[in-house]
Design goal:
Blueprint: E1 10-14, E2 21-26, H1 37-52, E3 58-63, E4 67-69, H2 74-82, H3 90-105, E5 110-114, E6 117-119, H4 121-128, E7 131-135, E8 139-141, H5 155-163, H6 165-174, E9 178-179, H7 180-185, E10 191-193, H8 198-210, H9 214-227, H10 232-247, H11 250-261
Parallel strand pairs: 2-3, 3-5, 4-6, 5-7, 6-8, 7-10
Antiparallel strand pairs: 1-2, 8-9
Helix pairs in contact: 1-3, 3-4, 5-6, 9-10
């Protein structure tokens, strides 16, 4: 159990209106959802659970309280440095890398409901999501250089792909915070809403995605990941392979038949 009296460090629930939407919640509000080993292992377990569950068609990742996630719990980190310092950074390989990989590559869309601040690895988790809704009170920062570290949790890639190398370097070197309106203007978030509405707006978006062509969404995620780092020939070949796989699905046939019949398609993920 977490030190948080409210329960475990990470919660997994289903949306009451649409059980095809899973909600994964960081649940250490008293520590602004700072990441202890328990929280990171709980998040890994939760993400694996929803990624592997065929009944889950979309995921919302959020936090309790006023913060989304402020990154590594530095109290625990300092204790580790004072103990066996040589193992203090094994968490990057054991936790951060697989968490970001799961968020970014699971074959279903992930919506980040950024209920508050996201810093360090917390910002990395947010940027690994496919779409983001932010509270109007949220602030963001990379935070690594201020404690003498480089980026982790994929930020050197996600910020560069989203903003370009110059702006990514600025954010990583200087660590200057930016607010939700700036994130919206930069295209880092889809919408900025009052904090009390973040969860509901994210769930609405996730329900729309859950009702959509989830097999196509999975291929789109793959295609963007390949296209971001590949030459044109590789990108075109990968897109062609994805189209061939989707062309053989019942979802594709259903969508075409629905279009011809002038009705809404019903996607089943097959």
């Amino acid at each position: 159990m977490s030190p948080n009296s409210a329960g475990p460090a990470v919660l997994v629930d289903r949306d009451e209106k649409d059980p095809a939407v899973a909600i994964v919640t960081l649940n250490r509000p008293e520590r602004r959802n700072a990441l202890t080993v328990e929280a990171k292992e709980g998040l890994l377990t939760a993400l694996r659970q929803v990624a592997e569950d065929p009944a889950v068609r979309a995921v919302v990742l959020t936090g309790t309280g006023r913060s989304f996630c402020v990154g590594q719990d530095l109290g625990e980190h300092v204790a580790s440095l004072r103990g066996e310092a040589s193992t203090s950074f094994s968490t990057v390989e054991q936790h951060y890398n697989p968490i970001v990989t799961l968020i970014a590559t699971m074959p279903k869309p992930v919506v980040g409901a950024l209920n508050g601040g996201a810093f360090g690895a917390g910002l990395g988790f947010a940027m690994a999501c496919d779409l983001r809704i932010a509270a109007d009170t949220a602030t963001f920062a990379t935070s690594f250089a201020a404690i003498g570290l480089t980026a982790d949790s994929g930020l050197s890639a996600t910020l560069t792909h989203s903003l370009g190398a110059a702006r990514a370097l600025e954010l990583l070197l200087l660590g200057e915070p930016f607010d939700a309106p700036q994130a919206l203007a930069s295209g880092l978030v889809r919408a900025v809403v009052p904090a009390a509405q973040v969860r509901d707006r994210a769930l609405e978006l996730a329900r729309t995605l859950a009702a959509g062509p989830t097999l196509a969404y999975a291929e789109i995620k793959k295609a963007v990941a390949v296209g971001a780092v590949s030459d044109l020939a590789t990108t075109l070949a990968n897109e062609g392979e994805g189209q061939a796989r989707l062309g053989a699905t019942r979802d594709h046939r259903e969508a075409v038949e629905a279009f011809l019949a002038k009705r809404a398609p019903v996607f089943e993920g097959s």
